[in-house]
Write a structure and sequence with these properties.
Blueprint lengths: L1 H10 L4 E9 L3 E8 L4 E8 L1 H7 L1 H8 L15 E5 L2 E7 L4 E2 H8 L4 H20 L12 E4 L2 E4 L4 H9 L18 H4 L7 H17 L9 H10 L14 H10 L11 H8 L10 H6 L5 H31 L8 E6 L5 E2 L7 E3 L5 E7 L5 E7 L6 E2 L7 E5 L5 E5 L6 E5 L6 E2 L8 E8 L2 E6 L4 E4 L5 E5 L9 E7 L5 E6 L5 E6 L6 E15 L2 E6 L3 E8 L4 E2 L4 E6 L10 E3 L5 E4 L6 E6 L4 E5 L6 E5 L5 E7 L3 E7 L5 E3 L7 E5 L5 E8 L2 E8 L7 E4 L4 E7 L5 E8 L7 E8 L7 E4 L5 E6 L5 E6 L6 E6 L7 E2 L5 E6 L5 E6 L6 E8 L5 E10 L12 E3 L5 E6 L5 E6 L1 H8 L6
Antiparallel strand pairs: 1-2, 2-3, 3-5, 4-5, 6-7, 7-8, 9-57, 10-12, 11-12, 12-13, 13-14, 15-16, 16-17, 17-18, 19-20, 20-21, 21-22, 23-24, 24-25, 25-26, 26-27, 27-28, 28-29, 28-30, 31-32, 32-57, 33-34, 33-56, 35-36, 36-37, 37-38, 39-40, 40-41, 41-42, 43-44, 44-45, 45-46, 47-48, 48-49, 49-50, ...
Helix pairs in contact: 3-6, 5-8, 5-11, 8-10
Length: 892
């Protein structure tokens, strides 16, 4: 043992000071260490040598990357991983506390409420991971840490990495993946495809043990335990401990069903059942469990008539309860209500906040997009059936109510200015700003006083005469790009997201007087707000969470709970959610699943990939047989779809690879990826072989969206600080065959973006807003000849047909957005012959600064990203009561 410690210390001496061994498990030995760079205690876990030898460093580290970006309040994050000497290791926070195993060893059984709470927190972590495509595979008390009264799931994805990397060779080590007492039947049988329902089974085993003192199946050997897992039914729980609520027993037994299809579909459903909500027990299980401990299967036949009577009685009782609830005092009944958007507009898919709730929760104001892409603010009172457009808010977005509810703050067209309008109506007035100041976001700090996020990323206080005082700047050492103000808390602290390029990051409170920071949540947060003595926030993907919060000291004071809601998130934006500061209400646009679709010229769509993911920027290969695109799972990267056999392969591993563009040879592609605080251009083989080669990282934020036919030059959209949160866009050329810098191509006081080159590289299509709205233009390339207007009444996302005879674009005309094809002539000069609308594209996701679709080589169909219409809000009333009921503090 000392020899192993000495070797580990020597191997990691340049990064970690390894102090001592603190534990050992079936797969790894755990050491307490000091992270020398960050001056913090960490746990270094070193894989057993025989396991590391079988897996191999490259394969293990490649697989473990997929879990490195899981960020959740109940998931212990992965800090680092690597290989040193002959060791494979990974690094996690060192948690001062104990494992659930140690507590069970000491106490045998836990209080019922605490066991349910721990399981609910673990279920929340599992639900998040499962929605990001990661299955734990080894849930057990040893992997659940108890720290400051909350559960943390450790080693997320380690078993998955070992399984994928080691495969059948795991048997050579004498080890198996999973622990017999908590292993699902399908794991015990060695099935290759393990789903999220296997984790649900394991969590059921853990809760069973917390309640009864033993796992559902035990035995003298691993083989004996596995045999019981496969053949026996777990003993009912109530005869072993009569204080357990019947619905908790029913939930546990459902989680322990032999067939995965008979278990809960999601970990969130398991949590709901543990709380006694939304659960319909399968025939006989609950009744049988209450009856003298006899197994449910033995009594099903005799209980048939009784169950029918019981079901009728339950229905009558439920109806009586509902009638009684209608007369309950206000605030006692949580409720979710759908607020439909009229057919003449939809919720704007643009940047956030797209909506705001009045402090008393009675009025919802949102940015709506109507015909031709026109945007304005609408107000929907809860005592009215239809929303009313607010005069003077044309082109406006991002509403925020003043703390007293008297005013609505919003940004003007293109974010160039901020205005306010009385909540009772009237003329809008401009918020004065210091000359030359570019503001990305503005929040109320008092009557006519504000806190702003400036376009350079810093925070500033804004006085009522426009004077500004900087409060804090991004920490470049932490790779922060922008301090995004969310809200000014009681006491004056500024609730802020310290964001990276993705606009998400740790949640901090910043003292406006000293600039001092208090970290509230270290996990990447996309949105946050404070109300009703609670903090509410959204993690990546839009899932909403809440916890009791001390605003004066900026700290969470109670258990974190999921609100059971996922808000729609626009790529590059924030979840579409609004919080009432005084009315115990919030509203959100429910998440719309995206699919990848092949759409004919007549608008008929066929799903290519139906599994909901955040599909983005599809690009068809030159031969038409493959499609590149990116999507976010646990990380965001580029994937390749083979249209012949419908296989899906990951082809970048940067954890933020995006915006792919094929090179003309069809063997390579370009993509964007962050290096430090800058997004650069990289090249990679389409078959995934080799490493990604850097093309250009020069201090500009740019991605290539068009390549000349000889493969020597790329055209990129470069973003720099500008009058809107999007920034300002210019077009530049990027050398692809030799080292060099980007060179300006189109750079004016307006935005130029969406570059698209004709197949012969003689003509450049692009979008400019020089006429106050986006329009599609074509000009010679590389010369500086005159331009030709292609679109009419607004247009974006130009894409050439492969024969160069058509230019497709998204019309922003007077009716619903449409896909239009312009028949064009390119010789001897460029001119538009005709324009033909093809189909409405209201339900197809757009993107900036490039097209979010591509045209197949034959021109008969397109590959597009399909979404819902954003046609409703969900209004959640009395959400604090909902949390109270879930934690056991309210009436059941």
């Amino acid at each position: 043992m000392p020899d192993s410690l000495t070797r580990v210390q020597a191997a990691l001496t340049d990064r970690y000071h390894v102090e001592r061994e603190v534990g050992a498990g079936g797969m790894a030995t755990v050491y307490l260490a000091q992270d020398l760079r960050h001056e913090r205690q960490v746990a270094v876990k070193v894989l057993r040598p025989e396991l590391a030898a079988v897996i191999g460093a490259e394969r293990f580290l490649a697989e473990i990357k997929t879990t490195a970006h899981l960020q959740h309040p109940h998931i212990l994050p992965l800090f680092d991983s690597g290989g040193a000497d002959s060791f494979l290791f990974y690094v996690m926070p060192f948690v001062a506390g104990e494992t659930l195993r140690r507590r069970l060893t000491r106490e045998k059984q836990l209080p019922v409420a605490e066991a349910v709470r721990i399981s609910t927190e673990v279920a929340s972590a599992l639900d998040y991971a499962h929605r990001h495509g990661v299955v734990h595979r080894d849930i057990k008390p040893e992997n659940i840490l108890l720290h400051d009264g909350r559960a943390l799931v450790a080693d997320f994805g380690i078993a998955l990495a070992a399984s994928k990397a080691g495969g059948s060779r795991m048997t050579e080590t004498g080890m198996s993946l999973g622990t017999p007492c908590y292993m699902s039947p399908e794991q015990a049988m060695g099935e290759r495809e393990i789903t999220a329902r296997s984790d649900i089974y394991a969590l059921g085993c853990v809760l069973y043990e917390m309640l009864t003192g033993d796992p559902p199946f035990t035995g003298s050997t691993a083989q004996a335990i596995v045999a019981r897992v496969l053949t026996e039914t777990p003993r009912p729980i109530l005869p072993q401990r009569h204080t357990i609520p019947p619905h908790v027993e029913a939930a546990v037994l459902t989680a322990l069903e032999k067939l995965p299809a008979d278990r809960f579909g999601t970990a969130a459903e398991f949590a709901e059942a543990l709380a006694g909500r939304n659960y319909a027990p399968s025939a006989g299980r609950t009744a049988a469990a209450v009856l003298a401990g006899r197994p449910a299967a033995r009594r099903l036949v005799r209980l048939g008539p009784l169950m029918a009577v019981a079901a009728s009685a339950l229905a009558v009782g439920s109806a009586a309860g509902w009638v009684a609830a209608r007369h309950a005092p206000s605030g006692s009944l949580p409720a979710r209500v759908s607020l439909a958007i009229p057919a003449d507009h939809r919720v704007s898919p643009g940047f956030e906040p797209v909506s705001a709730l009045s402090p008393d929760g009675t009025t919802l104001v949102y940015a709506g997009e109507g015909a031709g892409g026109s945007v304005r603010l609408y107000a929907r009172r809860l005592d009215e059936l239809t929303p009313v457009p607010l005069t003077g808010t044309e082109g406006g977005c991002c509403p925020v109510f003043s703390p007293d509810g008297e005013w609505i703050l919003f940004s003007g067209a293109r974010g160039a200015e901020f205005r306010k309008i009385s909540s009772d109506g009237g003329a809008a007035t401009v918020i004065p700003m210091a000359s030359g100041t570019a503001v990305a976001a503005l929040r109320w700090a008092g009557p006519d006083e504000f806190v702003a996020t400036l376009n350079d990323g810093s925070l500033a206080r804004v006085r009522n005469d426009g004077r500004m005082e900087r409060v804090a700047r991004p920490d470049s050492a932490a790779r922060e790009a922008m301090l995004n103000v969310m809200q000014v808390l009681p006491g004056g602290a500024i609730l802020t997201i310290a964001a990276t390029q993705s606009l998400e990051g740790p949640l901090v409170a910043i003292d406006p007087a000293s600039g001092a920071r208090t970290v509230i949540l270290s996990s990447p947060v996309q949105w946050a707000g404070y109300a009703q003595d609670h903090l509410v926030w959204a993690l990546s993907g839009g899932a909403l969470y809440a916890a009791p919060f001390d605003a004066r000291h900026a700290r969470i004071t109670g258990a974190v709970q999921a609100l059971g809601a996922t808000a729609q998130t626009t790529r590059g934006g924030r979840p579409k959610v609004a919080l009432s500061t005084g009315g115990d209400a919030l509203a959100y646009v429910p998440a719309q699943p995206l699919t990848l679709a092949r759409v004919g010229r007549d608008g008929r769509a066929a799903t290519m990939l139906g599994e909901p993911r955040s599909y983005h920027s599809p690009r068809v290969s030159p031969d038409g047989r493959r499609v590149l695109f990116d999507f976010a799972q646990s990380t965001r990267d580029v994937w390749l779809l083979d249209l012949g056999d419908t296989t899906l392969t990951r082809v970048t591993f940067e954890n933020d690879g995006h915006d792919p563009t094929w090179l003309p040879n069809g063997r390579e592609f370009l993509f964007g990826s962050a290096r430090g605080n800058q997004i650069g251009v990289f090249r990679r083989n389409a078959d995934g072989s080799g490493a990604a080669d850097s093309v250009l990282v020069d201090g500009n934020q740019l991605t290539v969206h068009a390549v000349t036919s000889d493969g020597r030059t790329g055209i990129a959209a470069k973003v720099s600080p500008g009058p809107s949160i999007l920034g300002a866009f210019d077009l530049v050329t990027v050398p692809l065959t030799s080292e060099g810098q980007s060179e300006p191509l189109l750079s004016t006081g307006y935005n130029e973006y969406y570059p698209a080159l004709s197949p012969n590289s003689r003509w450049l299509a692009y979008v400019s807003d020089e006429s106050t709205r986006p329009e599609v233009y074509v000009r010679p390339f590389p010369g500086q000849g005159g331009k030709v207007l292609v679109s009419q009444n607004g247009g974006s996302e130009p894409v050439w047909s492969r024969d160069g005879r058509e230019l497709f674009y998204r019309s922003l005309g007077p009716r619903e957005p449409q896909l239009v094809t312009a028949a064009v002539e390119t010789h001897p000069a460029f001119r538009v012959l005709s324009r033909t609308p093809l189909f409405d594209v209201d339900e197809y996701e757009t993107a900036v600064p490039h097209a979010n679709y591509d045209v197949m080589p034959d021109g008969r169909s397109l590959v597009m990203v399909r979404m819902g219409r954003l046609s409703e809000f969900v209004y959640l009333q009395h959400w604090t009561e909902l949390l109270s009921r879930r934690s056991g503090g309210g009436n059941r």
